[in-house]
Amino acid sequence: MSSSWQSHPPYSNTKKDDDLIKYHASCYCGLIQYVIYDEFPVDSTYCHCHGCQILQGAPYQWACIFPKTSLYFTSGLDSLEFYNNSENTQNHILPCKVRCKQCSSPLADEGRRMWLAFPQTFKEFRASETIREKLKPSCHIFYGQRTILGDFLKGDGLPKFEAHKNKSKQILDE
Q1: I want to staple 82 with a disulfide (CB 3.0 to 4.6 A). Which of 92, 122, 130, 167 is the partner?
Q2: Which of 162, 170, 169 is nearest to 143 (CA)?
Q3: Which positions fall inside the CENP-V/GFA domain (predicted)?
Q4: In what order do the strands lie in the sheet with 23-26?
Q5: pLDDT by residue (tens digit) across 155-169?
């Protein structure tokens, strides 16, 4: 029996020719796997918001943003689990966090039109510097909520914003 979320992108997308695949992504245990057909993300950011810190268990989250239409799930749809932190519910309410039910590894954030993939889940990510360059972040967002202080992030050449990119004040490196 199909859930309503399975009838919408990216879960309902049609498989394209294998030659068009740019990235292979999976959860830690490999139960959930999907491919991305776009070579370059629409954007790529480091998010320092408190929610990402807690839900990722890390000082910030790195997300590569792709249109939902550029993905295809090859396995594990029934093993997906969702969490909407605004409503504190595991229902598929957008925007939401997406993870594997079995290994609990985070896979992405799902927005209304975009899929915020975590490049560390891409098989190709560690393969070459060229791939990492294509996925390189353009900025830091919610930088005012960062937990890493000191010189670690200073001088990385990336713009830093108090909240969303180009919709909030830019923070200058001290």
Answers
A1: 92
A2: 162
A3: 23-162
A4: 23-26, 33-36, 71-75
A5: 788 999 999 998 999
- Residue 170 to residue 163: CA distance in whole angstroms: 9
The closest of 42, 107, 47, 97 to 70, measured between CA atoms, is 42
Domain assignments of the chain as residue spans, ordered by start = 4-171
Ramachandran region of residue 142, left (φ > 0), alpha (ψ -120 to 50) or beta? left
Give yes or no for a contact between 170 and 159, defined as CB atoms under 8 angstroms apart. yes
Cβ atoms of residues 53 and 46 within 8 Å: no
For 18, 21, 59, 100, 131, the CA distances from 72, given in Å and listed in that order, are 11, 10, 30, 16, 20
| Res 1 pLDDT > 50 | no
What kind of architecture, by CATH, is found in domain 4-171? Answer: Alpha-Beta Complex (3.90)
**How many residues are present in the chain?**
174
Integer Cα distance of 146 and 160 in angstroms: 11
Spell out the residues 6+ positions from residue 14 whose beta carbon is closer than 8 angstroms to its own: 72
Extract long-range pairs of 124-127: CB within 8 Å, 24+ residues apart.
Answer: 124/22, 124/23, 124/24, 125/23
